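I have been asked to look over a protein record a colleague put together. This is what I was given:
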Amino acid sequence: MESVVVGGGVRIAYEQVSAGPPVLLAGGTGMPPVAWELSGVRGALVEAGFKMVTYAARGVTPS
């Protein structure tokens, strides 16, 4: 995963997969981004031609 530093020096990890119109998958509190992959949602949307963007919220590894 890549990361970006936002306000206050907080580092947020994110991942972009594939190409096409972007879809941001935002998980619930404490949900790791790998959950989207394990559920099959990410793979199905990539197969449908979308660019998937997931992130690890503040306090969720690896952010």
